[in-house]
Design goal:
It is built from 25 helices and 28 strands. The protein has 801 residues and is an alpha+beta fold.
Length: 801
């Protein structure tokens, strides 16, 4: 098949070239026996950290054992909490130091030092977003011992940096050598990075999009365009001027999981569910989670096992943070999906025409706070900037009359992404888990729960601003007009009043970024959620097994996490069948299709091309083609399922049917152009591919060392196995990490990460998990000391002086 022409795995990286050429050998002999320069492959191997044997590491109190299993997961056994987190920092830095350094610099606003002028605006954005509040409240918000944990963790990172750069050390990882800079020492505050979760705290970008919609379409049509739930009409304040506002004004606010490129000179989504033991084969709960983010190299998550007095937790987290964000301890398991709270508001401040550093308040003109910063820029003089802040927050844009200021929860104590997990990691039951939810503020998550006592539950958590008199869907005035209500937050929704459930009667809870708030919910916490397609498929499969009295197994959960049945495709096939078309080669290919988006499927390829064409044509009929990219697929199907004369003409059903057939025939021709004229050779996987690109791959002669792929992929953004693409068909995001946790026997739990645990291209764990992940397979997430010892591949003892 032509599908086989796409390499499934990067052969260069699966079988490294470590020899030198014959020509190079000739020059070694001729040129006075001078040593030939080492290839970049060999250099990458030479600088790997020691992961077996014994290392003396100043800063530890007692010896620590680190056992890495054959899948690259480090299991750390320490005798006290300090040494546990010191060792975590040390061990993670052994595998991910370059990734961690870039993450840190992104949060500090110091990328221009290593990237050059292209990163200056991004650095300004990061500096505007940094936390400026009370540090004592900040640390204590996550857990009482957060500062001590962060100090130990960052001390461990610094110890690994010293170990690498010592005279007897291997030297810095190859990524630093290629990029031409060195890591700097870490401080506890570096883990309080606000950029890390910024992209997951809505909705400043949406507010500017909605303002642009109103300016071009008017309030009524703009409101109809949006898929708001609860259904509300956009509520612009009287006299608001939205001219010139668009999401591009915030283009430099880029989450720290976005790709960072070194030049040569979200969508966010997830699935989780927890199933009662009365539905499983073991009689104990099973919990599954596959968080979705951009697909990155290295992976955004790192799997680790932390054991010490008071700690025995395993799972995945961001490399630059201590603890475990998602996983299980001895007693409970948890997983998360984005909740979708609106945690941002934009304010349009009126600027004093006589003094651009003053803005209007109810009490007259107020002075902006100004912070002068000098941004070091690689290869250029420093850039001097003034950061401006109003009482609402940092100013990101101004035009002489207006200043756009952001108020967001990141300015509040305890809102560094995922650090709230330090409390969850130690919870032993539902009540303690509920207590930990109060500490989890960012990102807002739907967190499912299971425990060894047989309980299941879910809590949708996060810091939710109270807006008493507006929706939060549009920028609002910084100062209310005389006699008008103001637009100020009046506190936060009590965590106990956010959606949650315990031991639901249906026997399971599933979430997939869908609307979790009940009808008539009293708070304006959010109006935009993911379409419910993934959720409905998960519920269809689990309830089907429950209702047929089939006992659910781990194997069933593996199949569900990698399921590629598309409910939108099923709906579109039904609509086509209802239109009673005259048979054509295209309609015959679609008719009877099971709506499964396998990589081998030719009809899946036709469907995906058809869906793009259909979306474009319906958007044109709606008169919103310039906003097509922001138009919810759910709204497209609403138009198609309930055709109206305003969209499809006087005979709306006939007009809808004609649109279906014409776009299908157009899609057939486009697919022929993309995949050839023989439909027997079509396959979705030839269009839908993924390539793992390293941030350094634009440097000369290193892409073959660093990059992986391309691989053909199944699914799309609306299947449970979410493989969402951008404007083209290439996969951009999805689940790089998956877990299936068995409370009956933790050693039977399963996980996968991709492409590997290590970020160093010379490591055997750089891409070894990629074949498993691509095939929808897993490895055992070993937990007991006996199971870990049995599968240990590398043993490292870290000893104090």
């Amino acid at each position: 098949m032509l599908l086989d022409l796409i390499p499934r795995y990067n052969a260069v990286l699966m079988h490294r070239r470590i020899g030198v050429s014959l020509l190079g050998s000739f020059f070694v002999v001729v040129c006075l026996a001078q040593e030939a320069p080492k290839s970049v492959d060999v250099r990458a191997r030479d600088v790997l950290s020691s992961i077996h044997g014994n290392l003396v590491v100043p800063g530890l109190k007692e010896p620590v054992n680190v056992l890495r299993d054959r899948w690259g997961v480090a299991h750390i056994y320490a005798k006290n909490q300090h040494d546990l987190f010191f060792a975590q920092g040390f061990v993670v830095a052994q595998d991910r130091l370059f990734e961690m350094e870039i993450w840190k610099r992104a949060g500090q606003g110091r990328l221009a030092e290593v990237l050059g002028p292209s990163a200056v605006q991004r650095d300004i954005g990061a500096r505007l977003l940094r936390y400026r509040g009370d540090m004592k409240a900040e640390y204590e918000s996550y857990s009482p011992d957060t500062e001590a944990i962060l100090s130990a963790f960052t001390d461990g990172i610094n110890a690994e940096i010293r170990s690498l750069t010592a005279k007897s050390g291997p030297g810095l990882p190859i990524e630093f050598q290629l990029a031409g800079f060195e890591p700097e020492p870490w401080k506890p505050q570096d883990c309080l990075n606000r950029m890390a979760a910024f992209a997951m705290t809505g909705n400043a970008f949406s507010e500017l999009r909605d303002a642009e919609l109103i300016a071009k379409l008017g309030v009524q049509k703009a409101s109809a365009f949006l898929s708001l739930d609860p259904k509300v009409e956009l509520d612009p304040a009287a006299g608001m001027d939205f001219g010139g506002l668009s999401p591009s004004l915030l283009k430099n606010l880029i989450g720290s999981d976005a790709r960072i490129e070194f030049p040569s000179d979200g969508k966010q989504g997830s699935n989780d569910w927890t199933i009662s033991g009365r539905l499983t084969s073991t009689g104990k709960p099973i919990l599954a989670n596959d968080p979705h983010r951009v697909m990155a190299l290295p992976s955004l998550r790192y799997i680790i096992h932390l054991v010490a007095p008071g700690w025995d937790v395993i799972g995945a987290g961001e490399p630059g943070l201590p603890g475990i964000a998602v996983g299980h301890n001895q007693h409970i398991a948890w997983g998360f999906t984005i909740f979708g709270l609106d945690q941002q508001d934009l304010y349009i401040e009126e600027v004093n025409p006589q003094d651009p550093l003053q803005y209007k308040t109810a009490n007259g003109w107020a002075q902006m706070q100004v912070e002068h910063e000098s941004i070091v820029v690689k290869g250029k003089p420093p850039v001097e900037v003034d950061l401006k802040l109003t009482r609402h927050g940092p100013v990101f844009w101004e035009d002489g009359k207006r200043a756009l200021a952001l108020r967001w929860v990141g300015a509040e104590p305890g809102t560094a992404g995922y650090l709230g997990s330090l409390a969850v990691d130690r919870a032993t039951n539902w009540n303690e888990f509920e207590g930990a939810m109060k500490r989890w503020k960012v990102p807002s998550e739907n967190i499912v729960y299971a425990d060894i006592a047989g309980n299941i539950g879910e809590h949708s958590t996060g810091l939710a601003p109270l807006r008493k008199n507006w929706t939060g869907l549009l920028p609002v005035p910084g100062a209310a007009a005389d006699g008008a209500a103001d637009y100020e937050w009046s506190g936060f929704v009590p965590n106990s009043e956010l959606p949650h459930s315990f031991n639901p009667p249906g026997g399971f809870v599933a979430t997939a970024n869908h609307k979790m708030i009940p009808e008539n919910y009293p708070y304006n916490v959010g109006f935009e959620w993911a379409p419910p397609y993934r959720l409905h498929r998960i519920e269809e499969v689990i309830s089907g097994m429950r209702d047929s009295r089939k006992k659910i197994t781990l194997d069933d959960m593996e199949k569900l996490q990698t399921d590629v049945v598309s409910l939108p495709a099923r709906q579109l096939v039904n609509l086509l069948n209802e239109s009673s078309p005259n048979p054509t080669v295209a309609t015959q290919m679609i008719h009877g299709w099971d709506a499964t988006l396998t990589r081998e499927s030719g009809v899946a390829a036709l469907y995906e091309v058809w869906l793009k064409e259909l979306r474009k044509v319906v958007a044109e009929k709606e008169g919103i083609e310039s906003f097509e990219d922001d138009w919810s697929l759910k709204k497209v199907f609403e138009d198609l399922s309930e055709p109206s004369p305003q969209v499809f003409g006087a005979d709306a059903v006939a007009g809808r049917n004609q649109a279906l057939l014409q776009t299908l025939e157009s899609a057939w021709k486009q697919t022929e152009q993309l995949l050839g004229t023989d439909p027997q050779k079509w396959s979705w996987g030839r269009l839908h591919t993924i390539q793992f690109r390293h941030s350094l791959d634009r440097l000369p002669d290193v892409a073959t060392l660093l990059d992986l792929g391309p691989l053909s992929r199944p699914g799309d953004g609306d299947t449970v196995n979410a493989t969402w693409a951008g404007k083209k068909f290439e996969q951009e995001g999805g689940a790089s990490y998956r877990e299936i946790l068995d409370t009956a026997d933790w050693d039977r739990s399963l996980a996968v990460n991709t492409p590997g645990q290590s970020g160093q291209p010379g490591s055997s764990h750089y891409s070894d998990l990629l074949p498993l992940w691509d095939k929808g397979e897993y490895f055992p997430l070993l937990y007991s000391r006996k199971a870990v010892e049995k599968n240990a591949q590398d043993r490292l003892i870290l000893a104090p002086n």
